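Explain this record to help learners:
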Amino acid sequence: CYTIETQISIEKQNPIKGTIKGCQDDKGDVCNERVVFISSENAFYLLSNATCCKDKDQCNENITAQLPGFSEVNKTFSSKKLVCPSCFAFNNNTCEGKRMYCKKDQDKCFTISGTVTKGSNKAQDFAAKGCAASSIILKSNTTLMFGD
């Protein structure tokens, strides 16, 4: 079983926080990801932390995952070893990236696109590029859910 605390911010808006609880299937590897931080300079970031248990059914019922603060994660000194394109755009499936120095634990560039829905508002296409840790595994057609 897992509990994942998440925080996402788009275009410098107030972050949306959420909690996801569930059971990992045999193919999943959520429990090995731990703290996940993907970012596109100041336009977009996703921060999450997973806590897992397997001692009994529904063992995650009263477990919360501690989420480090964004400023704490973001102030990690830049490694200057990896430079990735960085951008975020609504109503597009791609965006043109500016150069971004990745943080110490970010060792891969990412490109992601999809749709985002907030409340009852109409879904919007989006695209983002930036830095991520190689432990993050997002497959095609993955649904990311945040907040209520």
User: Anything to note?
Assistant: Residues 18 and 59 are 19 Å apart (CA to CA).
